[in-house]
């Protein structure tokens, strides 16, 4: 039995090294996450892409300018016969060169409002991407604090279990002294050793869970997984939350609901874009060209060179009067898609009201449970202190003493759990209300 105890404490010393750990404040955790988290960094890139897409350079409002240049060379044999058959002329190796250069401008004057509605859609798509980025940030912050508070919970659990182990070791020492002086039986010593072993195993397991939780937290923070870290275990709760206010804020600010509204606006623009297929297109073309031809003479009056320069402009109109019903089909489908988005919004409003009420009830129950658990800890602590005194006086058995100790451990573990469950429930409520990013009380 003693060898088992030695092995357990050897594992404690060799498997877990104690480093100087930074105390990571909640504010610093948020800062690191917004700066380094991989999901947020990807989202920032997506937002930058959407910003580029809504630029004037992607709108179709600017003209297109093209430049062309070319050169041709010919070497031909020719034979000419005039209408009076009075003169035949054979020419061999006649060379000619042609050079040209031009600059053209094309601009769409009107395309059935397709361009303006498409430009509006690009801007709305950017706004939608902003909302999606906000949702990613909210979800990441929730993930952050679930990990952060899990480290906090396990840190406090570790402290509780460490105290329990210390008490069990003192009890084992007392049992050995009592046995050596004939004041107790060997059974008391064996029971104490079993409890020390069990508490040691539990302590090792909590240490393992804590180290795993710290690695999870570091992943969310976007840094090396084995970076030493300690968290602030002080938790403050909002005292100004009111259900009706949260419901009102959720209807106005919830990220999912705002995205649904933005999808409706995009669907309306899709209808207008498809309707442009029924309208004419008017475009303006203009160019400035230079052409030069050089050729060998084939007779006395042959043109040996010519140069042309000039400006040309034109207006083109095209109207697809009937496209086989394609535009009609596209418009009909776009209207169906719009109706679908409106149905989804109505569904989301109902689900949001349900989720807020459920989260509120969970939050209130968690606060009540925390209050009860805190009272329970005080009661069990008082009971353990009295049991400890009576055990020292030999008025209760080791079994009764152990039961009082186990009751105190369970009460403290339950209090620790309730403490962080309540805070996570509060943050979930703030996310539903659309206030999480503005919250300063993490």
Automatic annotation (TrEMBL):
Membership in a protein family: Belongs to the outer membrane factor (OMF) (TC 1.B.17) family.
InterPro entries in the cross-refs: OMP_efflux, TolC-like
Coiled-coil regions listed: 331-358
Keywords assigned by UniProt, alphabetized: Cell outer membrane, Coiled coil, Membrane, Transmembrane, Transmembrane beta strand, Transport
UniProt entry tagged with the keyword Transmembrane: yes
Official protein name in the record: Outer membrane efflux protein
Domain of life (superkingdom): Bacteria
Gene Ontology cellular component list: cell outer membrane; efflux pump complex
Gene Ontology molecular function terms on file: efflux transmembrane transporter activity; porin activity
UniProt cross-references to Pfam families, sorted A to Z: OEP (PF02321)
Cell compartment(s), UniProt: Cell outer membrane
């Amino acid at each position: 039995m003693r060898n088992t105890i030695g092995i357990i404490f050897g594992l404690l010393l060799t498997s877990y090294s104690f480093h100087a750990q930074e105390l990571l404040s909640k504010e610093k955790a948020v800062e690191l996450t917004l700066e380094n988290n991989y999901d947020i960094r990807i989202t920032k890139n997506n937002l930058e892409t959407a910003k580029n897409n809504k630029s004037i350079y992607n709108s179709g409002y600017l003209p297109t300018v093209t430049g062309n240049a070319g050169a041709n060379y010919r070497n031909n044999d020719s034979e000419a016969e005039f209408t009076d058959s009075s003169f035949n002329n054979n020419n061999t190796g006649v060379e000619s060169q042609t050079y040209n250069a031009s600059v053209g401008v094309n601009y769409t004057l009107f395309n059935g409002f397709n361009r303006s509605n498409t430009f509006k859609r690009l801007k709305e798509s950017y706004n939608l991407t902003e909302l999606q980025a906000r949702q990613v940030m909210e979800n990441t912050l929730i993930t952050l604090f679930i990990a952060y508070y899990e480290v906090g919970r396990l840190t406090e659990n570790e402290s509780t279990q460490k105290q329990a182990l210390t008490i069990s070791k003192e009890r084992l020492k007392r049992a050995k002294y009592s046995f050596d002086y004939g004041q107790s039986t060997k059974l008391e010593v064996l029971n104490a050793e079993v409890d020390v072993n069990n508490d040691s195993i539990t302590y090792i397991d909590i240490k393992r869970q804590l180290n795993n939780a710290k690695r999870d937290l570091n992943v969310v923070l976007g840094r090396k997984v084995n970076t030493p870290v300690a968290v602030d275990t002080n938790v403050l709760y909002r005292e100004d939350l009111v259900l009706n206010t949260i419901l009102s804020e959720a209807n106005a600010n919830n990220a999912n609901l705002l995205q649904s509204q933005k999808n409706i606006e995009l669907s309306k623009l899709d209808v207008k874009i498809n309707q442009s297929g029924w309208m004419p297109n008017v475009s303006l073309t203009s160019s400035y060209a230079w052409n030069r031809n050089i050729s060998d003479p084939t007779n006395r009056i042959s043109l040996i060179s010519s140069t042309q320069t000039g400006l040309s402009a034109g207006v083109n109109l095209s109207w697809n009067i009937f496209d086989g019903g394609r535009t009609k089909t596209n418009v009909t489908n776009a209207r169906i898609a719009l109706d679908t988005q409106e149905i989804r919004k109505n569904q989301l409003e109902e689900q949001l009201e349900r989720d807020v009420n459920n989260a509120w009830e969970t939050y209130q129950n968690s606060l009540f449970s925390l209050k009860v658990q805190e009272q329970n800890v005080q009661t069990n602590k008082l009971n353990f202190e009295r049991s400890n005194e009576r055990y020292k006086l030999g008025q209760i058995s080791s079994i009764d003493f152990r039961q009082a100790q186990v009751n105190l451990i369970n009460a403290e573990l339950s209090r620790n759990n309730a403490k962080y469950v309540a805070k996570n429930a509060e943050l979930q409520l703030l996310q539903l209300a659309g206030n999480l990013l503005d919250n300063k009380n993490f």
